[in-house]
UniProtKB/TrEMBL annotation:
Transmembrane segments: 133-152
Name of the protein in its database record: histidine kinase
HAMP domain ranges (all copies): 154-206
Species this protein is from: Paenibacillus hexagrammi
Enzyme Commission numbers on file: 2.7.13.3
An annotated Gene Ontology molecular function: kinase activity
Length: 440
């Protein structure tokens, strides 16, 4: 009233809220003018009608002097005392026989208090509804979480249980079980490792079976070779006694060598023999061959005493010497020479049987070494002695040991025998065999 403001509509003082601010000079702080803005009260009404506090709750505004800025038509507003709103932003008061929850918040920009009034019954109902909704949402969440956990747990447990069943079957001896998985996750990788492990076990069992079979066959062949020597040993002992009666020294020497050959070869059925006895066996064989090939060959033994105190598989040198005579010395022109030597190298004993005979052609030498290394099977027409010695050593001690053949065609051949150092006659071979089986 009296502001001289012209508008297209006429508003009374109760229809507007006037906001007034002085305009001052920034340097002198002199008031230069006043800015006045009129806000229609129905704007507040529209805002607060959209902010309903339950069914009968309402909102009103007080200024810094406690005067009402805006209020809906409601008689409860005039029953709310200013002192109720001093200390606690939320109080419960009884008005006209009903309890009301009064909430307020300060609006610092204009020093207003925005006050909400909710009947206590509505307030409790809101709390109860909220508690009920929270409980329902919690139950639904727990049910969904349990179903999801059960589903995901089953996706993990099911293949694990399947893998456990397969393991029990493999444990009972069925090595044909395989784990089939469509996924490539950790369970799939575990199943792949299980399949690989079973396949390796199956291969190792077959390998051990074949090696044991070969070993038994080799032992049977050696046993069969010993049957006749045992009979001949007894017979030759009688012949030697008779030759002594007739003073036939040459015959006595040959028969004595042959008797030693058979006696040492039998070795009371033991597989291991001292190197001293094995060398003596080889010397007896050479004495017999010297009488047969008189003037055709000579031999030399270079075995240190420190080597002779160890043990070795029996009948391993004689086949190598026989091979040198029949395939080396016998095939050359003129007189030949065989040299047998030995040395200790790290944890092995190494024998070398050298001859200056006819030698071996390169392609045949390569074929022999491939067979000795296990890279190729021995043909039926191939010689028995050399490969039998190699198989016996490798089946007992492993593929790191055995024979190696070196030759230059027309100049001679060298066969190297690599054997582990064995200190005792019976215990060490058992230890080596067990260690070899674990290595496989």
């Amino acid at each position: 009233m009296g502001r001289n403001v012209t508008t297209s509509q006429t508003y009374s003082s109760n229809d507007v809220l006037s906001l007034v601010r002085a305009w001052r000079d920034p340097d002198t702080k002199e008031v230069l003018g006043v800015i006045l803005i009129d806000l229609r009260m129905d704007m507040f009404k529209k805002i607060f009608e959209n902010l309903q506090l339950e069914k009968s709750g309402f909102i009103y505004i007080l200024d810094k002097n406690g005067e009402i800025v805006y209020s809906p038509v409601n008689s409860i507003v005039y029953r709310i005392r200013q002192e109720w709103l001093q200390d606690n932003p939320s109080v419960t008061k009884e008005i006209r026989g009903h309890d009301y929850r009064i909430l307020y918040n300060d609006y610092e920009a204009y020093h207003w208090k925005i006050i909400g009034v909710i009947p206590n019954d509505d307030y409790r109902r809101v709390v109860m509804d909220l508690r009920t909704y929270t409980f329902i949402v919690t139950i639904i969440t727990l049910v969904l979480a349990s179903l999801a956990a059960t589903y995901f747990t089953e996706t993990i447990i099911r293949p694990v249980r399947k893998l456990m069943r397969l393991m029990r079957r493999v444990q009972s001896g069925d090595l044909n079980q395989r784990f089939v998985s469509e996924t490539k996750d950790e369970i799939g990788q575990l199943g792949h490792s299980f399949n690989h492990m079973v396949e390796e076990i199956k291969n190792l069992i077959n390998l051990v079976y074949m090696e044991q079979k070969k070993k038994r066959e080799a032992e049977l062949q050696v046993l069969q070779a010993q049957i006749k020597p045992h009979f001949l040993y007894n017979t030759l002992d009688t012949i030697q006694w008779m030759a002594q009666e007739y003073k036939a020294d040459d015959i006595i020497e040959i028969i004595g060598a042959l008797t030693n050959l058979f006696r040492i070869g039998l070795n009371k059925g033991y597989e291991l023999i001292s190197i001293r006895e094995e060398v003596k066996h080889a010397e007896s064989y050479l004495i017999i061959q010297m009488s047969r090939y008189m003037g055709k060959m000579e031999f030399e033994m270079d075995i240190p005493e420190e080597v002779k105190r160890y043990h070795i598989l029996k009948l391993v040198l004689q086949p190598l010497i026989e091979n040198a005579i029949y395939h080396g010395i016998k095939a050359r022109l003129g007189k030949g020479r065989i040299r047998i030597s030995a040395l200790l190298h790290q944890d092995t004993v190494r024998f070398r049987v050298e001859d200056d005979g006819a030698g071996i052609k390169p392609e045949r030498l390569e074929e022999i070494n491939r067979v000795l290394r296990g890279e190729e099977k021995r043909s039926e027409e191939a010689g028995f002695g050399l490969f039998n010695v190699n198989e016996r050593i490798q089946l007992t001690y492993g593929i790191a040991y055995g024979l190696r053949v070196y030759s230059e065609y027309g100049k001679g051949t060298t066969v190297e025998l690599i054997h582990p150092i064995v200190h005792t006659k019976h215990e060490e071979v058992t230890n080596h065999v067990e260690a070899n089986d674990r290595g496989r």
